[in-house]
Amino acid sequence: MIINDKKLHMITKALDNSLRIQILYYLEDNQQSNVSNLMNYFETSQPNISRHLKILADANLVYSQKDGQERIYQLSDNHVSQLLATLKTHIND
Questions:
Q1: DSSP string of 16-75, one letter each residue
Q2: How many Å apart are CA 30 and CA 11, to the nearest integer?
Q3: Backbone region of residue 60 per phi and psi (left: phi > 0; alpha: psi in -120 to 50; beta: other values)
Q4: Which H helix or E strand runs over 10?
Q5: What confidence category does residue 93 fall into, taking pLDDT thresholds of 50, 70 and 90?
Q6: What does the mean pLDDT of the chain come to?
Q7: What pLDDT is recorded for position 74?
Q8: Contact present, 73 and 62 (Cβ < 8 Å)
Q9: Which of 59, 74, 77, 87 is the most buried (most CB within 10 A)?
């Protein structure tokens, strides 16, 4: 099986940070969120959340839609949910 090295690098880079993984779990639990909700929930700054969301988006783990003045983020697809479920199982074993 051939693996796309660039995509693999982007995904592993995105998953190499506990806050980014927590953001993914938050989005899975809440279906979607804007930056303000994430800032409040994780008690961190807007630039910090935005930087992490960009890395997650670049790895195609999340995507956003514009809603008026803000962007609404959610998981890209069911594969991300499957990845999170596997990760959670592995962590809890």
A1: S-HHHHHHHHHHHHHS-EEHHHHHHHHT--HHHHHHHHHHHHHTTSEEEEEETTEEEEEE
A2: 22
A3: left
A4: helix 5-14
A5: confident
A6: 95
A7: 98
A8: yes
A9: 59
CA distance 3 to 7: 8
| Tokens standing for residue 30 | 């809440």
Look at the block and give the residue holding tokens 């880079």: 13
Q: Which amino acid appears at position 27 of this protein?
A: L
Q: Is the dihedral of CA 60, 12, 91, 48 positive or negative?
A: negative
- What type of residue sits at position 16? D
CA 93, CA 52: separation in Å to the nearest integer?
27
Residue 77 identity (one-letter amino acid): D
For the four alpha carbons of 53, 44, 47 and 32, in that order, the dihedral sign comes to: positive
